[in-house]
Amino acid sequence: MIKKASFIWFFALITFYGYSQQSKEIEKIIELGRTDNRTMHHLDVISNRFGGRLVGSDAYENAALWCASEFKKWGMDVIMDEAGTVPVGFNRGPWFGRLLSENGMDLHFATPSYTSGTRGVQRGHVLIEPKSQEEFDRMKGALKGAWVLIGGKNDGWPIDRSEKADSVRASVIAYNDSIAKINREIMRENYANRDKPQKELIPLKEQPALFYRQMCEAGILGVIQSSAVPIRALYDRKNLDKMTFDNLPTVCDIKLDENQYAVIEKMAKERRYFLLEFDIRNHFKPGPVKYYNVIGVIRGTRYPDEYVMMGGHLDAYDVATGGVDDGSGATPAMEAARLIMAAGGKPKRTILVCLWAGEEFGLLGSKHWVEANKEKLPKISNYFNRDGGPTVASGLSVPEAMYDDFEKICRPLNSINPDFPFKLSKNTNPPRPRPTSAGGSDHAYFAMNGVPTLSFDAPDSKGYDFNYQEIWHTERDTYTKSIPEYQEHTSIVTAVVVYGLANLDHILSRNGLYLDPEVKK
């Protein structure tokens, strides 16, 4: 009896000591996060020193290597997880353009990634694109050395130069040619009966860059399309997989501020003499170019084969610098890891800090990891993904089966900053079906496989008027659009919650999270 009592006392002492140590580590995380937070330093490096981190670019490779070196410096293990390749690489340099006329001005524009730059500074006259074969034949000789204004509105993508697009254009040209013949007859009839009410001409079909191939062969310098501001610029999605160093695009694809486009279009319609001058440094490199997920590992002391995961995507479109999408997700995860390590954290289960590659190209990095690590998926307590902007983590809604665990873990969060009270709530909605298709962000393939992907509620609680749509995939995705106090607070919250989950004696229950596939049927 005495031996049994001694054992119980000893076990209680060890348990209390463990909780005490964990409490001290949490206090240290909060103290360091408040007094020496480096989230914005990490963001400064990846967005300003490296810039837009497009998969296939030197900027992405450099950022990945730097993040790996930081994890190692903090005492973490690192996995450089080869997630795929792109057939050629792309690097963006500086660009500028000017209108050369009596009312000259500097031009505000961008080009999609994996499209052509200029051959140094190139000047040329301006034409409006033809809409019928007859019109093309009439102006063919003037196309050489011209910048061509095309119709439509920029949606971020370049002009499609695939075979399928050529086929679509050919059918539109054939239709427009048939309408042009009818219109000629209408014009003759109108002229012959000019004292009578005039018949209206049949409009031609609109198709931006309708004579794209023919204009390229005629020697144009590039096409120019009107764009809303802020300017969005994506990449040559439809041709990248088939791109080689021998079939690269040859003419520029310029997306110009719609206000300046209107001025230039008016001048071109008036057939006034003026020139446009562009210097666009879009550069390619031979491939294939590998890209890697960077995964920082804090090894678990008791359950090394169970996991808590956090992260965001490291890649970013290069029309800006990826300061928000997704620097605002990757860098709080990095800082959360640094805080745990600096506080002397020794989690029971393994923490994985995931900086994904290729999210912007279709969730490529996270998809690769999920497909290559199927055996780990049942052992993941939760994956916290952040990809919604630099707002502040200040709440969680969790299923009832998880609530007691989170209630204990989240208790310290209201001691961080009274400006950001943390609210934990029960999600009383019935279990939902697992998603069956990917979308959104890097949590998608985890959720499709039944892994919990709870994410923090993250409002703009101080009213900084943050607007993700204004920044998403545009020229405004910069470091200065991130909100330091939100970012720093989020890193502390993330560190406390992830560390708390990693120190539970069990992984989170999945009861009430998803409908089992059999139940769904």
The CATH homologous superfamily of the largest domain is named Zn peptidases
Mean pLDDT: 94
Percent strand equals 15-25%
Question: What percentage of residues falls in helices of 4 or more residues?
Answer: 25-40%
What's the CATH class of the largest domain, please? Alpha Beta
Largest sheet: 11 strands, mixed
CATH topology of the largest domain: Aminopeptidase
Order of helices and strands: HHHEEEEHEHHEEHEEHEHEEHEEHHHEH
Quote the distance from N terminus to C terminus: 55 Å
Q: Please compute the radius of gyration using only Cα atoms.
A: 29 Å
Number of H/I helices: 14
Number of strands: 15
Taken from the alpha-carbon principal axes, the silhouette is: elongated
Instruction: Kindly name the structural category.
Output: alpha/beta
Poorly predicted regions: 7-18
Tally of discrete structural domains: 2
Going by CATH, the architecture of the largest domain would be 3-Layer(aba) Sandwich
Topology overview:
Elements: H1 2-35, H2 39-49, H3 58-73, E1 77-100, E2 105-106, E3 109-110, E4 122-128, H4 133-139, E5 146-153, H5 163-192, H6 212-218, E6 222-227, E7 252-257, H7 258-269, E8 275-298, E9 303-313, H8 327-342, E10 349-356, H9 364-372, E11 380-385, E12 395-399, H10 400-410, E13 423-427, E14 432-433, H11 444-448, H12 468-471, H13 484-502, E15 514-515, H14 517-520
Parallel strand pairs: 4-5, 5-6, 6-7, 9-10, 9-11, 12-13, 14-15
Antiparallel strand pairs: 1-2, 1-8, 3-7, 4-8, 8-10
Helix pairs in contact: 1-8, 1-13, 2-8, 8-13, 10-13
